[in-house]
Here is the input.
Amino acid sequence: MSTDPVWPEEIFTDLDRSGPVPLYFQISSRLERAIREGVIPAGARLENEISIGERLGLSRPTVRRAIQELVNKGLLVRRRGIGTQVVQARVSRPVELTSLHEDLTRAGHRPSTRVLSLERIAADEHEAQRLQVEPGTEITRLRRLRSTDGTPMAVLENLLPPEFTDITAETLEAHGLYELLRKRGVTIKIANQVIGARRTHGDEHELLDIPKGSPLLTMDRVAFDHGGRVIEAGHHCYRPDLYSFETTLVSR
Amino acid sequence: MSTDPVWPEEIFTDLDRSGPVPLYFQISSRLERAIREGVIPAGARLENEISIGERLGLSRPTVRRAIQELVNKGLLVRRRGIGTQVVQARVSRPVELTSLHEDLTRAGHRPSTRVLSLERIAADEHEAQRLQVEPGTEITRLRRLRSTDGTPMAVLENLLPPEFTDITAETLEAHGLYELLRKRGVTIKIANQVIGARRTHGDEHELLDIPKGSPLLTMDRVAFDHGGRVIEAGHHCYRPDLYSFETTLVSR
DNA sequence: GAGTGGTCTAGACCACTGA
DNA sequence: CAGTGGTCTAGACCACTCG
Here is the structure.
């Protein structure tokens, strides 16, 4: 009890018990902001779960769940018999279920997209397998060039199942694929990703303005809805000098 | 209630209420095995949480926690008002807080390691910053070649802080770095990773038996203990035809 | 021994879904 | 409407760490 594991009271004013936002989420998001802004410094110890609950008028499981969220994000470390501490390590944004377009916008950049091709085709064997449809099914094949602040950054190739054959190039140049899918009520529940590297093929070096045969960082993704249906299958390649994948791993 | 969301009773026999293994973990791990082995098929619906609890003599929060584990792993999908279903999509192993050596062993391969160099040096500015020590501190610099079934696969460069200056090349050729650290009671709590790509430098193409200037998949990692101290900083490069990073992402 | 997080119980009310 | 998961409460006992 020599150290004072407290924080400014005002972090947790105005908890809304009637609205739709869960209490544990209100707690964890405010706590996260306070940590990221340095209001609660790295290495600081939190109060124990029970007294936090008493101060806020919450039960221990609710407080505990809020803290668990930040433990999972790698912002806090809990140790039995010791307490809860703010992590010293700089935390990077995890690989999330978001699109490149959204990642860039959030990072303060202004992404732009050029649709290189947008075709409705009959799926060949390989494409049909990726989308889990019958070969010959009419699907959408899409190829885009994504730039950031005017610099070409990635070539995005995507396959879409039959239900999305009405997407137009104009909307794609303005809005990012995932944003369009969400607007149609399509929810991505799970995605499998494989990250790798290879040389440029075909016209990729011209599109990305790099030497022919240069290394590319690649990401292959298949996204599923709640029923296990494939929503989208993508093969993306990035200029490795402009893009990389960051993750924070937390031991369980 | 038309579908019968049940499973073989024998999955959950022999729950151990006195041992050190939490009940929720016993449930989730057995359930995971049953799903991975196909005993519970993809798309099957689970019973609701309350009746599972009654059948097993457990409270709802305990059952719920077990299910949540598998939702987080991407094996189950829960929807309010609907129920819980086994995911249809094939699930890949997530990027975990494990070493390459352990990943390979678990995948049934026989990794071998050649220690290329193992030096105790005074940290230059850049190395000191990565390990978060003072420049000039005596650290360990380590360079290894990791092969699988005889084929060279990755060049692993690591920096270790002063407390590990007594590690020998012999133990490193047999045991993998993380295994050695764990044996000394060192626990890695958090790691930041950046995955990227670049050309080969220096002698890397010779070591990996690929053309000079070929693409490499790279991973930079800094691992921390519970107190935020750096345990290890690594720069690894992999032959992209032999290695890639797989992840399953689950929407929150 | 005092204090911490880890686990577990037995209820409760609500929001959402489908028939 | 009944059934589902999402949230929340108010306790309890335990294992672990430290002084």
